[in-house]
Amino acid sequence: MTSGSGYEKINRVKAKLRNPMSIKQLAEALNCSERTMFRHIEIIMAENCGLHKIKAEGETRYVIQTEEAANFNQDIVKKLEKLKKTFSESNPADVKNRKVVDKIIDMLSTTDPDEFKAEAVTLDPNYILDYGPFCDNHIVDSMVNKVLKAIRDGFKIRINYKYSARAEESDEIVVSPVKVIMRMDTLYLIAADDTYEETQVFKNYMFENIVSLNVTNESVRPMHFDPAIHYQYAFGKYTDTSKPQDVSLLIGPESKWLQTQFAKSSFHPQASLRMDKNKNMIVDLKIRITPDFKTWLLGVSPNVKILKPESLKADVVKMLKDALASMQAK
Questions:
Q1: How far are the Cα atoms of 35, 266, 287, 306 from residue 297, in angstroms, in the given order?
Q2: C-alpha–C-alpha distance, residues 139 and 136, integer Å
Q3: FRET label pair with 60: which of 14, 169, 176, 249, CA 20 to 30 Å apart?
Q4: For residues 242 and 293, what is the distance between their CA atoms, to the nearest angstrom?
Q5: What is the distance between the alpha carbons of residues 294 and 312, in angstroms, rounded to a whole number?
Q6: What is the spatial distance between Cα 13 and Cα 29, in angstroms, rounded to a whole number?
Q7: Which residues are CB-contacts of 206 (< 8 A; sequence separation ≥ 6)?
Q8: What are the E-state strand segments in the chain?
Q9: Residues 136-188: pLDDT tens digits?
Q10: How far is it, in rounded angstroms, from Cα 212 to Cα 159?
Q11: Can you list the domains of the chain with their CATH numbers?
């Protein structure tokens, strides 16, 4: 099993046992031997936490299923109820405190751990992250929370996904979620599909194109995800498998703001920067030439000179000519 204290390991097993699973399935899901898993099951059985053995498809499976739904915060709630009785109904301060305690009790009084919902973290009401008019700020929180919970618990998810926003039909696919990432104003589910074993490539799924989502009871094998590798050779959103190319750009001293932007950049691999005798910055990149990179070059074209490759320079020149012709058309 992956590293962690004995308490953490037992909790990971318990998280899996919200759905019926065999010893073999648990051992595979948590990367340990079946003998080790038997020991964990014995510990959980001794806790009297509602662990049951059931027969399914000819094998023994285990599931945590209490006879009566437990109140997971009942001790704290009881203490708060006692505290409420000490407040005077004639004292304005006590009346106010009573209302506060009532709210806390309401938040803690749940009989289902799934009812706990992760709220968006706000550092400060005056600190606002605004990614502009085209960002995915309309994403449904419950969908994101379902994915995050599936990642924590280690289960696959079934999504109905439109590969294009204009597509009329959606495809149903089962994937192993690993991360939720905001990249270039767009929120992505990063997951492994059924091609991962062969390609070792994670796929990007835009949340705005997910029509529906459900968590399965199929476990996910532990997988290592490194954002630096996932976004290697990427300029922005696109993480395709096209061959990266050597790109060189020249940024003149009159565009100090752009030189500063590259000095602070975080490409993977990192951009190589050097200054020539005329204070021009030469930027060397190993990057995939994707549509968003070309569009960015088009936007900063007065401030950037493309030194190589010639094919990229030709593409941007054509884009400029097409844009000019479109604007001049009557």
A1: 58, 17, 13, 9
A2: 6
A3: 176
A4: 14
A5: 8
A6: 9
A7: 136, 186, 187, 188, 189
A8: 51-56, 59-64, 155-161, 171-183, 186-192, 203-206, 210-219, 245-251, 272-275, 281-287, 304-308
A9: 555 566 788 889 889 988 899 999 999 887 888 889 999 999 999 888 778 89
A10: 6
A11: 6-64 (1.10.10.10), 74-109 (no CATH), 141-230 (2.30.30), 245-328 (3.30.70)
| Residues 300, 258 contacting (CB under 8 angstroms) | yes
Copy the structure tokens of residue 311.
């094919």
Output the CA angle 99-101-105, nearest 5 degrees.
Answer: 115
- CA atoms lying within 13 Å on the CB side of residue 208: 13
Instruction: Give the other-Cβ count within 10 Å of 182's Cβ.
Output: 14
pLDDT over 60 (residue 114): no
- The answer to whether residues 110 and 72 touch, using CB atoms and an 8 Å cutoff, is yes
CB 316 within 8 A of CB 293: no
pTM: 0.59
Percentage of the chain surpassing pLDDT 90? 36
Q: Which residues contact 297 (CB under 8 A, 6 or more apart)?
A: 304, 306, 312, 316
Cα 133 to chain centroid distance, Å, stands at 21
* Cis bond upstream, residue 269 (ω within 30): yes
196, amino acid identity:
Y
Strands 304-308 and 272-275: unpaired
User: Coil, helix or strand for 317?
Assistant: helix
